[in-house]
From TrEMBL:
It is found in: Cell membrane. One of its GO terms (cellular component) is plasma membrane. GO terms for molecular function: acid phosphatase activity; bisphosphoglycerate 3-phosphatase activity; inositol phosphate phosphatase activity. This is Multiple inositol polyphosphate phosphatase 1. Its main location: membrane. Keywords: Cell membrane, Disulfide bond, Glycoprotein, Hydrolase, Membrane, Signal. Belongs to the histidine acid phosphatase family. MINPP1 subfamily. Residues 1-29 form the signal peptide. Gene3D superfamilies: Phosphoglycerate mutase-like (3.40.50.1240). It is an enzyme of class 3 (hydrolase). Its EC number is 3.1.3.62, 3.1.3.80. The keyword Transport does not apply.
């Protein structure tokens, strides 16, 4: 009898051990979980700028190579919610009052009601305007400007002139304000204004209706039609996740939450975290697993409507890519002609939106998996980003957080036998692999140019 029962006891013991290990593992995962990293494109720059792919080994810049030109494409910094979203939060506040009244009538246990909900009102209640750059966004771009100057001192050692350091932005105030904040950091100490010795500098922009370089998404009617027709399909893909979490929260708190409530509470979670440094209110309603799923739905939307989900999304950004290559060609020619310092452009600095940075990242082939680069060259559709708990490269919080940026730095390497000029790719200030350049971050300019021209030919 003992021999026949022993396997059952061993199986039971193994099951108990597995259960305990799972609890410990989940507990550790929950402790390591940081909602500040999980807010898709509503993530603050400081929370994610130093999250890198440690499996990628950056290239050591060869001795004798010096940077001669820099291209920057940056998103505006952290901003306040738009008027439309502020009205959404006011509607949420009204509905929460109804839910609380209903809970009181049903004599629900006080433990079921999160304390913060009892007196909650939207922090943006009564505001007449929205979408402007927040003070945190100002600081993000100001500090970025300082770091760029410190990292590339040889590029920013010239007397300021708008032809040497052109700063371009869209006409949207949060983008132009970001450009100003960046310029204040970049040129701080080099002027005569105030105690910080700031200096005046020029920021230029094109009309919204004709800005095909930085607001191509607003100038392309084909894209507008595509987005309008595909937004319902994106919502349909997100619907099962929202429905599942709605049921879970309704059961957890015994509130008659609607799907719209859950969408609005998730939006509130992102705004509270990013703008107010509050993570123990709206965000605390969701488990780490639920946050990961909600983040995935946001990332899926970015993928489909701004990223690799449709080649149109990034192909319309070719005028920006063309502008980048043209600036490099001009810098290379100035170097070859031995032009005098101060007579040619050393950096082209651009400030725009997620709808600009995401397509530009796609044109560079960033954040692709396996053979995806070959597939986008053939304009084949890519698979959706894997659903949690699977890992994925495509994360909105990494691809285009507030103040997210791509820098392409042109280097002169006279001693190199294979090429005299190289391009280094930096994403959020860190070297990143370019699949079209053999998976390196430091690519011969001729190779980079041919790789990028492939996209241009596809768009002719």
């Amino acid at each position: 009898m003992l021999l026949t029962r022993l396997p059952d006891k061993m199986t039971l013991a193994a099951a108990v051990l597995f259960f305990l290990l799972t609890l410990v593992s989940n507990s550790r995962a929950d402790r390591d979980f940081d909602v500040r990293h999980r807010l898709s494109t509503v993530t603050r720059y400081s929370a994610v700028k130093d999250i890198v792919d440690y499996s990628f080994q950056p290239t050591d810049i060869p001795v004798g190579c010096t940077p001669i030109h820099l291209n920057l494409v940056a998103r505006h910094g952290t901003r306040s919610p738009t008027k439309k979203r502020m009205r959404e939060l006011e509607k949420l506040a009204s509905h929460i009052k109804e839910l609380l009244k209903d809970a009181k009538e049903k004599n629900l246990s006080p433990q079921k009601v999160p304390a913060w909900l009892l007196k909650w009102e939207s922090p943006w209640k009564g505001k007449l305007r929205g979408g402007e750059l927040d003070t945190k966004g100002e600081e993000e771009l100001y500090q970025l400007g300082i770091r760029v100057r410190e990292r590339f001192p040889d590029l920013f050692n010239e007397e300021y002139h708008p032809d040497v350091y052109p700063i371009k932005t869209t006409q949207v105030p949060r983008a132009s304000a970001s450009a100003v904040a960046f310029g204040m950091g970049l040129f701080s100490g080099n002027g005569s204004l105030g105690l910080a010795r700031h200096r005046a500098f020029a920021v230029t922009s094109e009309s919204r209706a004709s800005d095909i370089t930085l607001r191509f998404f607003d100038c392309c009617q084909t894209y507008k039609d595509f987005r309008k027709s595909h937004e319902p399909a994106v919502d349909k893909l997100k619907e099962p996740i929202i429905a599942e979490i709605t049921c879970a929260l309704a059961k957890r708190y015994e509130f008659n939450f609607t799907r719209q409530d859950i969408s609005s509470l998730w939006f509130l979670c992102k705004q509270e975290t990013t703008l107010l440094d509050i993570t123990d209110q709206a965000c605390s309603l969701f488990s780490p697993t639920e946050v990961a799923l909600l983040e995935w739905t946001d990332d899926l939307e970015v993928f489909m409507l701004k990223g690799y989900g449709k080649s149109l999304n990034y192909r319309m950004g070719v005028p920006l890519l063309k502008d980048v290559i043209q600036s490099m060609d001009q810098a290379l020619k100035a170097k070859e002609d031995n032009q005098a310092p101060g007579s040619y452009e050393k950096a082209r600095l651009r400030f725009a939106h997620a709808e600009t940075v995401v397509p530009f990242s796609c044109l560079l082939g960033l954040f692709l998996e396996g053979s995806d680069f070959q597939r986008i060259q053939k304009e084949e559709p890519l698979d959706f980003p894997p659903k949690p708990p699977k890992n994925r490269s495509w994360r909105g919080s990494i691809v285009a957080p507030f103040a997210g940026n791509n820098m392409l730095v042109l280097y002169s390497c006279p001693a190199n036998s294979s090429s005299k000029y190289f391009v280094r790719a930096l994403h959020n200030e860190h070297p990143i692999a370019m699949p079209g350049c053999g998976g390196t971050d430091f690519c011969p300019f001729e190779v980079f140019k041919v790789c990028m021209i492939i996209f241009r030919l596809l768009c002719l």
